[in-house]
């Protein structure tokens, strides 16, 4: 796994003002935007998430094309997009994950009446159960 990837994106300026974003080297890595500034942000997000998913799935990441080698049609421009993967990996690993749980109604009422923060309590209980230091991130 590399820490930095630079891939060319193709921005397609549609007649309705929308900007379509695609990465020729990464099929399925697409996005869209309403402005150039938003296109840069959305292209970066799309690239980061796509590459993170490829890493998680164990897929090989191709070598990026050179900007000069990307063929363009009318109303299209290239943009070199950078993904700094240590930041992406950190963000994805610390991102909250929603879980659904089931408890008896009477216990739910009692906990709500006591002002229990279910998420915080569940996190503490799981860390204790697994023997993980409460302050430590996995």
Quick structural summary:
The protein has 138 residues and is of the alpha+beta class. The protein has helices spanning 36-57, 85-94, 105-113, 118-130, and strands at 4-13, 19-22, 30-33, 76-84.
Q: What does this entry look like structurally?
A:
The structure is a single chain. It contains four helices and four strands; from the N terminus they run E-E-E-H-E-H-H-H. It has helices at 36-57, 85-94, 105-113, 118-130; strands spanning 4-13, 19-22, 30-33, 76-84. It is of the alpha+beta class. It is elongated and about 65 Å long. Helices cover 39% and strands 20% of the residues. The longest helix is centred in the middle third of the chain and has 22 residues, at 36-57. The relative contact order is 0.16. A four-stranded antiparallel β-sheet has the order 3-2-1-4.
List the SSEs and their pairings.
Layout: E1 4-13, E2 19-22, E3 30-33, H1 36-57, E4 76-84, H2 85-94, H3 105-113, H4 118-130
